[in-house]
Sequence to fold (290 residues):
Amino acid sequence: MRLAEAGLGEIMLCDVVKGLAQGKAQDMHDSQAALKYRYSIEGSDDISKIQGSQVIIITAGLARKPGMTREELLQKNSQIIKEIALQIKDKAPQAIVIVVTNPLDLMTYLVLKTSKLSPKRVVGMGVNLDAARFTNLISRELNIPNTEINALVIGAHGEGMLPLARLTQVKGVSLEELIDEAKLKKLIAATVNRGAEVVSLLGSGSAYFAPSAALLEVVRAVAGNQKRAIGLSVYLNGEYGLKDICIGVPCLLGKNGIEKIIELDLNSEERQAFLKTADSIKANLAHLKI
Ligand code: 2OP
Fold:
């Protein structure tokens, strides 16, 4: 709905549950007249409808239940994601694929390896959502508009997420210099826990509106060939001293996918934390059946 309202092309919703995508699409389609918008949106239970898509967004799979980590979804969601990745390989190898399903970094890796697309064309949407949440929490804490905040989050979109206070700028000043350590720790913990907090408040299902907004940001970068820095889970091949892993780092994203992976100048503490997160992703990767 966000993509349609933003005028980002023709939208096809696919879901394996009969009638679900058609019903949702019909409901969204009916919104146009009252909104005085025009957009194209259709639904189908036939995944072959992805044929010819320029951008494919994968949200399929189970969401967390209260108390669950994103990583606990690994086995349940792998099978679903693999089947979709094979369909992409077959029917839409030209697409740019944005993975949203959790555990995000592992599912991004699985889509990449199964679809055999170029690593430039498969990204995971996670740390830009975490940066949006971090921004929002900073904005509320300091009573500063979110437009004045440039928050940076890297690492796993999971328990090993790393909101980087030193490299987060508020009106051009490092966040580290603006608030005391105790408050900073709280802000970081709240950011890491934000998705779980929503899951626990909802009781069933996971966050929805902020993820869709963060997704819109990613699709806009592709559609507008923006090539501005945005945090994404991407395949590293030597960057940050890491190989054969998908993990969240800032990238330049445009119409052909990843133009550049930005290597931040991390201090030793940040680097250590980043490598620790990468280790835990690697340990989970070992359980993936590719
Ligand atoms: C979240 O952080 C769904 O992983 C997503 O809410």
The two ends are 33 Å apart (CA to CA). The mean pLDDT is 96. The chain has two domains: 2-124, 127-285.
